[in-house]
Design a protein that fits this description.
flavoprotein, Flavoprotein-like_sf, Rossmann fold, globular, EC 1.6.5.-, alpha/beta, NAD, five-stranded parallel sheet, FMN dependent NADH:quinone oxidoreductase, single chain
Length: 197
């Protein structure tokens, strides 16, 4: 079994979403000969999708400059990791009601027409099928199920768009609301993980 862990916090240390992702990976891998690949998007930030990247992606492979080929190769490496994974675990903190710029850059890198999704007569079809996904969602406030939870629809929509439909979410909220709220959030997250994995 190949497990891909994506840590998308802006912090490489002390991140609650990474801590939860680590716990999920440990449970999934327990008792197996799992191969775990971890990508820390804070320690290894992926370049944002800018004009130069778009030009590289839309230039035929045999016509790319060395710089364009190198830029596309960065995205190719992330796509290959996802394609090779049986299980994907994503640490996804909420920043200002959305996903982090680190996670958005990863999403932009792995969304490739004809590779991870394709357009058909009946609409887009995701091509990253048959994978299990766990998303550890952490927030400073309480947003789940409320009007301020615009992060969850984004996550669901993007993952489904590329074919990742078997997704389980683990929530840990209230981390900006004092020690008691943090302890409660961690205990509830533990119960969710135990029930899902």
């Amino acid at each position: 079994m190949n497990i891909l862990q994506i840590n998308s916090s802006a912090r490489s240390t002390g991140s609650e979403s990474t801590r939860l992702a680590d716990e999920i990976v440990a449970r999934v891998a327990a008792g197996t000969a799992a191969n775990v690949v971890r990508r820390d998007l804070a320690a290894e930030p992926h370049p944002v999708l800018d004009e130069a990247a778009l030009q590289a992606l839309f230039t035929p492979a045999d016509q790319r400059t060395p710089a364009q080929a190198a830029r596309v190769a960065l995205d190719d490496a992330l796509i290959a990791q996802v394609q090779a994974a049986d299980v994907i675990v994503i640490g996804a903190p909420m920043y200002n009601f959305g996903i982090t710029v680190q996670l958005k850059s990863w999403f932009d890198a792995i969304a490739r027409a004809g590779v991870t999704f394709r357009y058909t007569a009946s609409g887009p079809e995701g091509l990253l099928k048959g994978k299990k996904v766990y998303v550890a969602v952490t927030r400073g406030g309480l947003h789940k199920g409320g009007p301020t939870d615009v992060q969850l629809p984004h996550l669901r929509t993007f993952l489904s768009f590329v074919g990742l439909d078997d997704v389980q979410f683990v929530f840990s909220e209230g981390h900006g609301m004092g020690p008691d709220a943090v302890a409660r959030a961690r205990a509830e997250a533990q119960q969710q993980i135990a029930a899902l994995v």
